[in-house]
Amino acid sequence: LEEQKMDVTISDISKEALEVAKLNQDKLSAKAKRIHSDLFDHIEKTFDIIVSNPPYIPDEEDVQNIVKKEPNVALYGGKLGVDFYEKILLASKTHIKNKALIAFEHGYQQKEKIKSFVETIYPEASILQKKDLQGKDRFTFIGIGIKLS
Q1: Are strands 137-144 and 126-131 parallel, antiparallel or unpaired?
Q2: β-bridge partners, 129
Q3: How far apart are CA 54 and CA 102, in angstroms?
Q4: How does strand 33-36 pair with strand 9-12?
Q5: What is the pLDDT of residues 41-58, one digit of tens each?
């Protein structure tokens, strides 16, 4: 059952992805505002929680056929695959509340670079990094004004 007090916003640069999100919302009777936006370009709110799974495949990396069906905008994240993490962290400064959480999924080889972005952009933040079910470094949680453990 969805938490009734949550005010959820979904954004994506892809209109097609937002259409899929609407279909999923309808199936699940979930409430969320959908915004067509390149990162925070068309978003004016501040948030308690920001969750992102941006494109994180390095530009020159070859991908499996199963992934190739996805549009490039959903896959590739710059030379090292981490460009969007820095952009999101920088832009989040004007879109995040004083006590908040930022959560990322990322490539298993990107943990340290993302941690360095966080330490530069949010030097007082609490950082918690976790492995996926296969034991690969895959998630970074950032506590702004809160301690994560």
Answers
A1: antiparallel
A2: 140
A3: 13
A4: parallel
A5: 999 999 999 999 886 555
